[in-house]
Amino acid sequence: MTDDADEFEYAIDESAMERGCDLWFALAPGYVEVPFRDLFADPESPEGARVVEAVESLLELVPQEQQAGFLEQLARARALTSEMRREGVVSFAIGAHEGDDGDMLESVVMLARREIPWTPPKLAAAQAATARENALPIAVVDLPCGPGAFTESLLELPTEADSRERSLYEATAYLPFPDGRNLAILTLTTTAVGARENYRAIHRAMAEMVSFDNPLPEEFKARVPESEVEASVRAVFG
Question: Which of 69, 84, 129, 159 has the fewest CB atoms within 10 Å, i.e. the most exposed one?
Answer without folding.
Answer: 159
